[in-house]
């Protein structure tokens, strides 16, 4: 169940978003993908989940080639993601936000759905039970009837994770899950990622919150201007001169801005 990213290159016209990037995420680990703004991290997620094709290279998960598949086929292969910007249905309840994705996957056919046959009711109950378990897992058990819009920011991000988990991923891609969170919310997120890992789900994490990344990741790859400049354990990455230089460069740019 390893994820193999092999020699991925992506160009958007003249922009080299990724150049010959290779890494491998082992089953059961939390793997961080970090790098300054514009380094190519989200582009990599979009390629893994087939939102668009790479210019070159391929992605393989569990010995199956993902490159060339449709996004829904990637989900079926056990790879799910959350997005940098919250993409919930604000006017639906918390429970509905988790079950909505699942309804597309029910086994009952159209006939059963139209006539609300017993088989379909049983299936719906199963979906709800599973959604409630996921809401418990992410700490939103008592909010199932609340409209998503009325949740606090950190809760909304956890709801997104519950929704991604509803399709039973073997690999979960989290795109900046701590963005905009306060310290308490970030600590809760740390606990949640640990719990998800304990369930045996592999996690690939894009995150700018360095203390969180260093605490939670088993290994980390660093991108800068679309190239992989380092890979290793948190301690190795912290002390890598190329990484320090890349981040210092960004700080200088920020100061100039
Ligand atoms: N659809 C697109 N069309 C054109 N250029 C794009 C597209 N998506 C990304 N890029 C460019 O590719 C480069 C990498 O962007 P990407 O969003 O992957 O970086 P990132 O590391 O995720 O950045 P951030 O940390 O700011 O989210 C940037 O120069 C960006 O402008």
From TrEMBL:
Cellular-component GO terms for this entry: plasma membrane
Alphabetical keyword list: ATP-binding, Nucleotide-binding, Transport
Name of this protein: ABC transporter ATP-binding protein
InterPro entries in alphabetical order: AAA+_ATPase (IPR003593), ABC_AA/LPS_Transport (IPR051120), ABC_transporter-like_ATP-bd (IPR003439), ABC_transporter-like_CS (IPR017871), BCA_ABC_TP_C (IPR032823), P-loop_NTPase (IPR027417)
Any GO BP: L-valine import across plasma membrane
Ranges in coiled-coil conformation: none
Stretches assigned to the ABC transporter domain: 3-250
One GO MF term: L-isoleucine transmembrane transporter activity
Stored PANTHER family: AMINO ACID ABC TRANSPORTER ATP-BINDING PROTEIN, CONSERVED COMPONENT OF ABC TRANSPORTER FOR NATURAL AMINO ACIDS-RELATED
CDD domains attached to this UniProt entry: ABC_Mj1267_LivG_branched
Pfam families the UniProt entry points to: ABC_tran, BCA_ABC_TP_C
The keyword Transport is annotated on this UniProt entry: yes
Organism of this sequence: Exobacillus caeni
């Amino acid at each position: 169940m390893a994820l193999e990213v092999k020699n991925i290159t992506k160009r958007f016209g003249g922009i080299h978003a990724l150049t010959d990037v290779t890494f491998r995420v082992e089953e059961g680990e939390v793997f961080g993908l970090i790098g300054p703004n514009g380094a190519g991290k989200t582009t990599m997620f979009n390629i893994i989940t087939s939102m668009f094709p790479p210019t070159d290279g391929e992605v393989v998960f569990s010995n199956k080639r993902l490159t060339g598949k449709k996004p829904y086929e990637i989900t079926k292969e056990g790879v799910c993601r959350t997005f940098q910007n919250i993409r919930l249905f604000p006017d639906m309840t918390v429970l509905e936000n988790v079950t909505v994705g699942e309804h597309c996957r029910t086994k009952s056919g159209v006939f059963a759905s139209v006539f609300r046959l017993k088989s379909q009711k049983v299936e719906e109950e199963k979906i709800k039970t599973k959604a409630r378990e996921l809401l418990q897992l992410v700490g939103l058990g008592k909010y199932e009837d609340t409209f998503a819009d009325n949740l606090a920011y950190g809760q909304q991000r956890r709801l997104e994770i519950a929704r991604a988990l509803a399709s039973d991923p073997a690999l979960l891609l989290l795109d900046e899950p701590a963005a905009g969170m306060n310290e308490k919310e970030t600590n809760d997120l740390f606990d949640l990622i640990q719990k998800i890992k304990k369930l045996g789900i592999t996690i690939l994490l894009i995150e700018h919150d360095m203390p969180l990344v260093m605490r939670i990741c088993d290994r980390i790859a660093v991108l800068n201007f679309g190239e992989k400049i380092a890979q290793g354990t948190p301690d190795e990455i912290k002390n890598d001169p190329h990484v320090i230089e890349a981040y210092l460069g960004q700080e200088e740019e920020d100061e100039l801005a």
